Amino acid sequence: MFELKRGKDILVETGGIRSREEAQKLFENALDRENRSKLHHVKNEEALLKIANSIAMCKPDTVFINTGSDEDKQKVRQMSLERGEEEPLALKDHTIHFDLPQEQARIIDRTFYIINPEEETSVLAKTILRSEALEYIEKHMGGIMRGMPMLVGFFSRGPVGAKASIPAIQITSSAYVMHSANILYRNVYEKFDGEVERTGYFFTNLHSQGLNRPEDLPNARVFMDRSWLTTFSMFCTYAGNTLLLKKGNHRFAVDLATYYKREEELSEHMFITGLTGPGGRKTFFAGAAPSGCGKTTTAMVGTDFIGDDLAQLWIGGDGTLRGINPEKGIFGIIKDVSRESDPYLMKCLREEGTEVIWSNVLIDENRVPHWVGNGEEHPERGINFQGEWWEGKKYKDGKEIPISHPNARVTLTNDPIENYNVEMAEDPRGVPIKVITYSGRDSNTMPPVWVAKNPEHGVVLGASIVSEATATEVGVKGIRRQPWANEPFIPGPLGEYMDAQFIFFGSRKFSEEGRPLIAGLNYFLTHEARGGEGKELLGEKRDVKVWLSWLERRAHGDVSAIETPIGSIPLYKDLKDLFESEINKNYPKELYDKQFSLYIDNIIARIDLQREAYRREKKLPSKLFEVYDEQKKELLALKEKHGAVVLPDMLLKDAGRAYSASGNRGSSS
Ligand code: SPV
Ligand code: MN
Q: Is 293 part of the annotated catalytic residue set?
């Protein structure tokens, strides 16, 4: 089992500073009076040692302490502009940042967990021994900040005082990275010591882009020291590789939840959003989706948006599921964001009043950004992630270069987004979450929405997500299993994480009302998978509102459902009504039949694929296989009776009685 504080702390080993006195002495030389006095506010010895050792190792010219004051935030932004990491755009407070053409996403081939000898990790993760990592870091980060500033910021991953919030330090030579941190995380300089005392730990992130040259990219690394909750990142700039408050610290939070807070907390790759239902009630959802599968879009559909990427969950004293967003902003994919699909976001992006960092899009001669799928006319030339761009420009392999990279992003705080519920997002009690959703990118198997029979089936549903490759990771192709959409961020063996999921969702600490519904979502069914032609999707983006609304009704027992071996699915009439009332759209029975018929062979093939893959992992909870076996047996029986394609009406007839809206969610009605 994983353990904190095992092995040597690499930062201390390389920096060599072991006492508060030594640290103070170093600060006197390395910091000017103003920054010394700012740092004076922080008393936590461990934090001071982390900072001092980072200075001793990286040898920056200057050190800037970012207190999060308006003045400091402006200074950071200004520094990024002056150093050429960002450039101003036409709209006030909008800037553009470009990452190197070869570093447009997370560099998973150069991302490693630092481990101690014999420490077990996920079989899907890359690892490096502590001794080798130490050597690499000494060699490549020693003096890496010569001629550069170091910026130091104190943040909280979550509202101050929330049970699942964890403080974190960001240390970087990139003003762009600190600028992004200021937008995405709560600066808690004033309250840092108190938060560390309350939680018992903090995360440390040390980054330097070095000279930011393409020739250094092969040496780029993202190292995560699980034992010391410290990340090291070098020779890269893409925020997913450098702003390790995000996925680096998420990985540590997953470890803490899995090994130190079983049955208490979970750390998930999930959005949080609320939907207003009948009578004005608010129902909150937390939903997982692999990177690049519409998570931000789903979150934005809510009337009470809380977060689009990460969720810290726990069971409240009242038996409800509580959730907070460790972030306070969006680092979202911009591709396909348009007025029609994302009106709230577009307002922030196309009208004055919001601070936005654009990355890797096309900038025209008027310094206006453009991107793929925005539903607008775009210019014939400009500057984009590949340098100068003109219509028809091609890569070496002959493929046309799109105007923006498929993983091009925008960074903005949530505050100006119209449906953001800032009071609830900042409430340390978290929001009460009634529905958990899991979605992937699945063109031919699962229906648009279904609800797991019980918590165990729900955990297996999460364990069984798949997606076709997306643009969020460098060099990844084909179909991928995406357990809980969190797998890239699970450091330990999957079986141990899965066990923690079974224990959490099956916990008796949940009240009857508080235990969440667990559901699957799939927006990616195609015509050709349902007897038609072509890869066009059967549904469209705005249908998401209907799937969520149905879950909202179901969570409150307002609608009944049809029970199937994979869980329960909606009745046609309920969806037809919701299509009408929620998005003013006609929903033909024929489309319903296509979307909700069970394609038994596909589902069984999926189960077999999962079982095969999981069989190769050690120490998996046997419940996983029991659920797969149970589902497969029932599916085969159904096929025996009705054939390979089972229409919802056949199941209704089987049930042999009228489906009144008694709405008891555990049963078939
Ligand atoms: C993702 O890829 O899941 C993101 C962006 O949310 S990154 O910071 O790269 O993780
Ligand atoms: Mn993400």
A: yes
